[in-house]
Amino acid sequence: MRRRIVAGNWKMNGSKDLVKQLVGAVCEQSGNVGKDVEVVIIPPAIYLGQVAEQGGGRITTGAQNVSQWQSGAYTGEISAEMARDMGCGYVLVGHSERRQLFGETDSVAAAKVEQVLLSGLVAVLCVGETLAEREAGQAEAVVAEQVRSGLSVVADDQWSRVVVAYEPVWAIGTGKTATADDAQAMHSEIRKVLDGMNAPANEISVLYGGSVKADNAAALFAEPDIDGGLIGGASLKAEEFISICRSFPAGV
Ligand code: PEP
Questions:
Q1: Is the beta carbon of 115 within 6 A of some atom in ligand 1?
Q2: How many A from CA of 230 to the centre of ligand 1?
Q3: Domains, the chain, ordered by start
Q4: Percent of the chain at pLDDT exceeding 70
């Protein structure tokens, strides 16, 4: 089912103290978030247990990354099954920082999606074009290819555990956000690509990410094909994050 989701990606930020303060504050206010909005916190893996414990079921947790392999001699990696064991509901796959800094290709992303789905978790496939690709008029083609390749492994009965996050690379951590119109146009394209893959396109949540803040979230979330956000920097401030979680149109 298409869900409204706001997921906070802490990246490599945080500490035991921050988990206590931030998760505590988010949970205190989680009752003020629309009943149909799922609040997800995605901390560094080492804090997953603490976040889940502190969250006490009021938030869902997610992992920022898992291995493309199931288990074994892969020092430093964590598996999708371990993420499930620690209570995660979601796993990010193919975040642009993984693609750019760690050389993750579309085929690695596909292998990770496969592992996440095998473990029974929800895979959040992150896609997005660079500024050069956008300026060359290639944004739609690049994003379409990332969606087709990354989700090429999804079986018919697994689509309910797939989420796509459109995150233009030029908007991540830069303070530049796509306009609501531009983001809506790309989300609509993504749904067309999903439809072309025989996926239930209207049932799949497509999130927007890239410098989402309390003051621009409402315009983005009002668009018909934007089902929520993947939030980086602003997820490290409780008030701001909760305010984003409350930015859906009335009735959500
Ligand atoms: C992200 O890391 O997924 C992200 C969208 O970051 P920011 O909100 O800081 O741009």
A1: no
A2: 7
A3: 4-245 (3.20.20.70)
A4: 100
